[in-house]
Sequence to fold (650 residues):
Amino acid sequence: MKEVRITSEWAKRNLNTIIPLAGLILLLTSLRIANPYFLASWDSVITLVYGMSFFMIAACGLTLVILMGSFDFSVPSVLKLSAMIFAVLYPSLGFLSIPAALAVSLVFGFVNGLLLARFNIPSFMATLATSMVAEGMAQVISGGYTRMITDPAFRAISTTMIAGLPSIFYWSIAIWLISIFITMATPYGRAIYAIGGNLVGARLAGINIRLVRISVFMICSLFAGVSGILYASQIQGAHMQVGVLDMIPLFASVVVGGTALTGGVGGVHRTLLGVLIIRWLDSGLSMIAIDLNIRMIVFGLIAIIMAILTIDRRRIKIMK
Amino acid sequence: MSKNLKKDATTFPIPTTTWRIVRGNPAIWAIFGLVIIFSSIVPEKFLSTSNLVAILKNFAVTSMLAVGPTFVILLGSIDVSYMGIWMFGGALVWLLYPYLGLASILIYPVFGLLIGLFNGIVHVKAKIPSFILTLAMTAVLAFLTTYVRNISGVLTLTVPAYNFLRESPIPYLPAPFLLALPTIILAVFLMFFTKLGTYLCAIGSNEEGAKLAGINVEKYKILAFMFSGFLVGLGSIAIFVHLGNQTRVDFDPSELVRGLAAIVLGGTPLAGGMGGPHRTLLGALVYVLIFNGLFLLPGVDPNHLKLYIGALLMGAVIIASKALKGALIT
Fold:
């Protein structure tokens, strides 16, 4: 059996596992000290689950893209658009509006992937453009108004209680497990890691880079779409502020989990830790009445610091 | 077209004749085309004096956001911290006005320089992708601006004492445009009359080669970020005056697109290695003309603005992607 010795070398190698775990424990204890009511009752657990679940689904998709070394700026906008399509079409189409919203999300993912893989445009630029289009479409189809749906069937998708927890929790865990299965147990998942680790090597190994890139962006947007639908069901409708403040926390939670921005390092399983840290921090800070803007600043700084710590610099010669 | 662009990258970037300038900058064709189209469809609206002055003002604002970051794009990196510098710099001017008086406007370029220095050092030494770093920087500074507004209990961070800057000494040339001129001149000077422009192109097209040729790559990368921040800070004075001696206090990513779109439309490819601030100026003019003319047309709904911005950016990056062939893009 291989002996594991805790040395500075070992600590350095496993830095992106140690920091999130230590951060989580530190966060939990300090939040309990600062506010004794934090996670004290089952109701507060349910509130936290509601805050985390839709976020978790979107973060899983973003993690897949970041594992590939790319970036998807359009996740919150696609989330908003999908929520909006679901809420706007629900009165006329009923549950047929779900496939419509998912189809639009998939189209956005396809365009993102195509712009990167076929036209060779840096992904953040391509997804910035498509996020603008998604925002514009959400504005056009809703007219800028809040859409409220009071139908109990609409709400049931996310809020049915199963074993004490709302159904959106089980949706998000299911999506998380599916993403883990894709990345850990399939050749396709290996291809994602390979592309993130070494693009040229992956191409020489015979991986169809164009196909993998386009499909990963489609999965990411699909997850964003699913997240939007569940979120609309959770909050009883959709409005133009959905997802507006989600980009920085989403990105921070992926990076805090230990997935390196340069790709190939980390995984979807780690994103759960990141999401727990970021959402607990968010609710903990708002419990002790910290301003929303300050919370966003904290997330931005955490993201930068964790990005510095997790990137494996030995592999990279030129950083653009 | 791509053949000409390639030639541009290997030779010294000053075109010698008018024809070479026009041939090497497709944005000039776009400007002529847009002016002809809009002045034939809506001549009385498009060619009115007030509209032309508005175009000049918007040109000043858009180019001031884009000229500085062009230097970083030459490297193949990207700098989107301009939103943060512009927003929080204005908050700093407002905060420091009671202590420094009229001189507090000078905090803008100093603050830009410091943020640029920080970005450059972190990007070069810690090796973080520049887009992520500067995006987080913009978010931090933008939310900080909103926070300053919130805790100080005012609606806008206005400094009325600078009202004298808003009056232009020359008729028909608006004050923001005149205030933008120093930044434009400085940027073009840095590009064509110092080593910086040439070296940045060299690093952008082949970093290993530039290192082997004896260029201190790390130093010039940090310098590029510094000048980017400095030029944005200097140019933000024009935007500050244009907005009525105040700064924006809420973060809107569509403003982020404005600067990037101007750079890409001008013909500086995102992979770096060619182009420069002179092209960004043309790109800014194209961007301003498109959105100025578009909303003069009958039946165009301003509610669809974001849709048009996104579509334009997508089209621009697709056209510009010809120059990216062969580069490793993530």
Summary: DSSP finds 15 helices and no strands in chain B. Chain B touches chain A through 54 residues (CB under 8 Å).
